[in-house]
Amino acid sequence: MSPRSARLARLSRSVTFSACHRLHSKSLSDEENLKLFGKCNNPNGHGHNYKVIVTVRGEIDPVSGMVMNLTDLKEYMQAAIMEPLDHKNLDKDVPYFSEVVSTTENVAIFIWDNLQKLLPRGILYKVEVHETEQNVVVYKGEETIVK
């Protein structure tokens, strides 16, 4: 019998959290913020029920048959997403967003960075953040686009 070659798979898990925020850049005037962000610049903020899908990628372990134990992934997501973000005012309760505009793009980066600290090296493939059913950001860890 010949040995089977390693097989790669992607494993995804989702969570939903609720949070509020205000889109507002300290680099812009109040008028510029209102023009850029519109109703999302409401001084009292607004909220979302965010859905986050985390995808990991790796070899399927020949003994366990898994890329990763889902229970472990659930615990990592609890620590990296739910604990810091659920039922929070992103701008006031999460130190990261005191200097970074709390756009969905930046929420995805925040989640990516938190997961990178917890997951086995090189396994995180994609973070997908659904702000609404129509607005989705996918982040795969890229830092810049080469032009």
From TrEMBL:
Segment forming the signal sequence: none
Record's keyword terms, sorted: Lyase, Metal-binding, Tetrahydrobiopterin biosynthesis, Zinc
Alphabetized GO MF terms: 6-pyruvoyltetrahydropterin synthase activity; metal ion binding
SUPFAM superfamilies: Tetrahydrobiopterin biosynthesis enzymes-like
GO CC, alphabetical: mitochondrion
Keyword Oxidoreductase: no
Gene Ontology biological process terms from the UniProt entry: tetrahydrobiopterin biosynthetic process
Presence of keyword rRNA-binding: no
Enzyme Commission number, as recorded: 4.2.3.12
InterPro entries assigned: 6-PTP_synth/QueD, 6-PTP_synth/QueD_sf, PTPS_Cys_AS, PTPS_His_AS
Gene3D superfamilies, alphabetized: 6-pyruvoyl tetrahydropterin synthase/QueD (3.30.479.10)
Pathway annotation: Cofactor biosynthesis; tetrahydrobiopterin biosynthesis; tetrahydrobiopterin from 7,8-dihydroneopterin triphosphate: step 1/3
Pfam families, per database record: PTPS
Cofactor field: Zn(2+)
Function: Involved in the biosynthesis of tetrahydrobiopterin, an essential cofactor of aromatic amino acid hydroxylases. Catalyzes the transformation of 7,8-dihydroneopterin triphosphate into 6-pyruvoyl tetrahydropterin.
Name of the protein: 6-pyruvoyl tetrahydrobiopterin synthase
Organism (species): Orthonyx spaldingii (Chowchilla)
Name of encoding gene: Pts
